Amino acid sequence: MSRVAAAPSLVAAARRYASLGIPVFPCVTGGKQPLTPNGFHDASVSLATVERWWRRTPDANIGLPTGVTTGVLVVDVDVHGSGSGYEAFDCAHHKGLTQGWGWLVRTPSGGMHAYYPTARDEQRCWQVPGAHIDFRGDGGYVIAPPSRLEVRGKPTPYEVIAVSERKPMPLDAAKLRLFLDPPKQTRQACTPLPPLGTRPERLAKWMATQPEGGRNQGLFWAACRLVEDGHPIEFTIATLGPAGVQAGLPQPEVESTIVSAYRTAVPRPRVSRPGPTPVSEAIAQ
Q1: pTM for the complete prediction?
Q2: CATH says 2-180 is which class?
Q3: What residue spans define the domains of the chain?
C-alpha cells in the first residue's frame, strides 16, 4: 500500500489498486460520497473502467470496499471534539485483539485506519461510539491513500504511517466489539420484601435499591402497604416517588403504578386496643 500511496496522482493510485486486483470506485473530490450510482457496489478492477471514471473526475478520491470483496478489514480510530479512540485501540492492542494489522494510515482528521486481512467468515460493519471506534467490514468502505479531505479549508491526505514487518493476521471483529462494548449486566434477583408494618421511610429506602426487572413490582407492593396503613395518595407519591425515580423508573410510570395500587388495595380496618376502656370513651357512652 505504501507504494500505491506514493503514486504521483489519484488516477495513478487508482490504476495501481486495480492492477493489484483491489476493486476501487471514485468518490467526490475532497469528500467521501461515492460518484457512482450504486456506491461501493460498483467498485471495479477493470483498468478501462477506472480510467473512464478518473478521466471524468481527475481529482476524485479513491473508495475501497472492505470485507471479502477486497480481502481487507479496517478498524477506524476516530478523533472528534467529543473524544479520541486511540486509548481504546491501545487497550485492545494490549489484550491481543488488534495486533495483526498490516498497515496503519493516518486520516486527515488525525485519526487512524488499521488495515487487516479478512478471515473466511463474513464480518459486518459496526460502530462503538462510546469508544470512538468503527469497524469497516462487509457492507462498508473506506477512503484509501493518497486521497485527500478538506480539513479547515485545506486539502489533507490519507498517509501510510507504518507497514508491519510481520505477516498480517485476520481480525476477530466480534471479540473486539465485545471488548469495547461489553454487555451491561443487570441484577435479576430482587432484595427480600420488608416485613409488614415497615415505616414509610424504610419502604422508600428499600424501593430505591430495586434492580431492573423488579422495580415496578416493588413499587406497587410498597404502595399497597401504604394504602393498607391508611396513608393518602399524596403522601405515598411524595414518599415513594423519589425512590422509584432513583431506582430508574420515569416519573409518569411511578405515579401510574402508585395510582394502580390505590385502585387495588384497601386500608386495613382499625382494631380496638385490648385492655380497659379509655376514660374518654367511657364518658361518651
Answers
A1: 0.65
A2: alpha beta
A3: 2-180, 200-264
The x, y and z cell numbers of residue 10, run together, are 489519484
What is the 3 state secondary structure string of the chain? CHHHHCCCCHHHHHHHHHHCCCCEEEECCCCCCECCCCHHHHCECCHHHHHHHHHHCCCCEEEEECECCCCEEEEEECEECCEECHHHHHHHHHCCCCCCCCEEEECCCCCEEEEEECCCCCCECEEEHHHCEEEECECCEEEECCCEEEECCEEEECEEEEECCCCCCCCCHHHHHHHHCCCCCCCCCCCCCCCCCCCHHHHHHHHCCCCCCCHHHHHHHHHHHHHHCCCCHHHHHHHHHHHHHHHCCCHHHHHHHHHHHHHHCCCCCCCCCCCCCCHHHHHHC
What confidence tens digit (pLDDT) does each residue in 96-138 have? 999 999 999 999 999 999 999 998 788 999 999 999 999 999 9
Q: What is the pLDDT of residues 44-91, one digit of tens each?
A: 999 999 999 999 999 999 999 999 988 999 999 999 888 899 999 999
Dump pLDDT digits (tens) for 209-232: 888 778 888 899 999 999 888 899
